[in-house]
Amino acid sequence: MLYLTEADVEQLLTMPIALEAVETAFQHLGKGMAENIPRRRLHLPQGSLHLMAASLPELGYMGYKAYTVFRGNLQFYFWLYETETGALVCMMEANLLGQKRTGAASGVATRWMAREDARTAGILGAGWQAGSQLEAVCQARPIRRVLAYCRTARRLDRFCTAMQEQLGIPCLPASSAEAVVDQSDVLITITNSSRPVFDGGRIRPGTHINAAGGNSLARRELDEACLKRCGTIVVDSRDQARLECGEFLRPVEKGLLHWEQVGELGEVVIGQRPPRMNSEEVTLFKSLGLAIEDVAVAARVYRMAVEGGKGRIFPADAPPGS
Question: Is 254 considered catalytic here?
């Protein structure tokens, strides 16, 4: 078994590689050639354990991710198996893996759903997932400037400085969420808010939204006005959305939204569902984060690690660290 650290993953995984792998995963999912098991959570007084698994038989791999959240500390690990033999071939630290694949999912959605002439990306949130979101969106469209907002001025300034240097385009701090929403062609929300982070009535015609911050029923970045404005609404998985999508819970209960209206990104990628009806339509991708994305990206990282001689080999009968 190969063991890869965060440093190993960082050396190998780029956003173009993650984008390609995640798009392939959604192609297989859309065609019914893959299986994804929604996340399950085990809650304890001190913290929680989260488990998610998927298989991509056509690519030859399956696996699961387990992560813990205890007193604000997060630890992510991914186990990769061969589908042909059932052999455990790799275990990797998966913090960066999760960041990249979450960003890549938004990038894939942007590639398929955003207007071709999108040039301004707006982002609400400047935490540990925000950078990969912007990186992926800028890979998907020729973005010329970024507008960003979060509630902490110092964090916002640091984020804008870092992203401007990384992306090579202006990344400007905004004075409010509304200032970002009013000017964005592609709008990213990546917060942990339990309340809507902007007034959905302000969304401009033609905007594409990537809502990637909330993956529990207690979180809600979008208001009902935003959902009413959206024509095409897709999620990464309807099964997982029924369990975790806080934005959809109340509208579904009120009859304002029906699950039949909600598509899946895999359906868009394989051409089964149109990505947008016209240039004026507001489109939404609600990202929850799927294990199928982890499997696809981890498989690419594993193969590159083997080819490049990265990581440490452990005997099949010895656990890591022994």
Answer: no
